Amino acid sequence: YLIQGYQTHWGEAIMCSNHVLNNVVNTTTGELPFTHWHGRKPNLSYLHTFGAPAWVHIPSQVRSKGQHRARKLVFVGYEANHRSFRFWDQGTADIYCSASAK
To answer: Signal peptide: which range, if any (predicted)?
Structure first.
C-alpha cells in the first residue's frame, strides 16, 4: 500500500519494520530474537501491513451523539509496551493509538 504523504512517516515505518524484524528468524543465530529474550514463541496473528486502511473504533466517551462510531485511518505501526496499534489520520495528520480496529 502506498499512502499519501508517506515521506513524513519514515520514523513510523522504521519502528514498524523493527518490530517485525524482532519477530522473524535471525539468519546468524537461527532463532527468533523474541524467543531469545522471552523464552517462548511469539504470537504473530496481530501483525498488519504498513499503510493498510483500517476502521478504528471511536470510544463513546470521546464521540458526541450522532457521530460515527469508527473512522477510516491508515495503519502505521505498533504502540511500544502496549497491545495497541498506531494509526494516521490523513485529513488532520494526527497519529492515534487504538486496540479496537478492523
So the answer is: none
